[in-house]
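Q: I'm writing up a methods section and want to include an example of the input and output format. Could you take the sequence below and give the corresponding predicted structure tokens, formatted cleanly so I can copy it straight into the document?
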Amino acid sequence: MPVLYRFAPPGFTYEQYDKIVELMDEAGWGAPEGRRYHVCYGESGALQVVDVWDSTHHLRAFYEALFPVLQTVGVEATEPFFGQVHHIIEG
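A: Here is the clean output for your methods example:
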């Protein structure tokens, strides 16, 4: 069953987000298996990220690669929100 992940660390900026995307791409995690959707939204200094994953298994694998990158970029690894997805409508 798909899961939703929302991450909203304090003070999260465009520059930090762009650097994380760059580093994850370089590490081969730019389009990870099991991620259906990725959205980053908000103003710089208050960005949030929402992902929809096929399973918690896929999400956990991504997390293992993501958290060291967050530390490198100086993003506080706050507790994200997780929830089971009930329904997805595309379009």
